[in-house]
Amino acid sequence: MNNLSSSGADMNMCFVVPVYKHGSTLEDVVVSLLEFKCPIIVVDDGNGERDRELIEKCAQNHKEVILITFEKNRGKGAAVFAAVRRAHKEGFTHIFQVDSDGQHDSGRCRDFMALAEKYPDSIICGYPEYDESVPLARKNGREFSNGWARLVSWRPGIKDVLCGFRIYPVKPFIRVLNTSIYLNRRMGFDAEILVRMLWINTGLVNEAVHVTYPKDGISNFRMVGDNVTISFTFARLCAGMIIRSPLLLLRLFIRKIFLTGRDL
């Protein structure tokens, strides 16, 4: 589904898969994406020797993989930022971010890509549909971030800000990268990049994706440290929201009066 056509313009999409401590699941994730005929930018975010060997083997096995390697761990955000800059350099118009742990249902990719074709200027933002495997603390804790994101963006339609299953239009993403003094490069990245892209009036479409938490799965989320970092991120965003409030309020009014369809 590469080179999708929308509104007379070519949509050239690639996948972006940041990898840290999930070398053992990467092969299955990449194989699940091959049917969509898109290049796959894999970022080795400073993995240890065993994971790095698995990542390099996956890249060697599949010509669709473009491998970026960090010598030291920089964080999920830094990995995605590097991939977006590479995608922009290669001429891709959209990136489809997919986590490397295999928790998301890749069968939903085609539906997300169809939405990106219909709404090419919008973020197609996944929100999780959990099964019984989800840790209750993780499920309930997400609402803290979701509530703050709705507040600082003036976008009450946000359903989830932490899900790593999204399609981004590249141009506004690059604009945020080039104009932001500081961006969270670790676990707060998903929330901050979404808010900042909404601040520059990027569209938003929410779409469900099924999420499974394997019993032996490896989580990179640090319950205390990452929650503290995310809290500081929203404190910075709150300050930015105050400055932008008149414009955000005007946009909210316009959307309520004129906007129809899935784009919120």
Short recap of the structure:
With 264 residues, the chain is an alpha/beta fold. The protein contains eight helices and nine strands.
Summing up helix and strand content along with how strands pair, one would put the structural category as alpha/beta
User: How would you write the strand order of the largest sheet?
Assistant: 5-4-3-6-8-7-9
- How much strand? 15-25%
Topology order in helix (H) and strand (E) letters: EEEHEHEHEHEHEHHEH
How many whole angstroms does the radius of gyration measure?
A: 18 Å
What general outline do the C-alpha atoms trace?
globular
Distance between the termini: 25 Å
Overall pLDDT level: 87
Given as residue ranges, the uncertain stretches (5+ residues, pLDDT < 50) are 4-8
Helical residue percent?
40-55%
Most strands sheet: 7 strands, mixed
- Regarding quaternary structure, what we see is single chain
Q: How many beta-strand segments? A: 9
Q: How many alpha or pi helices?
A: 8
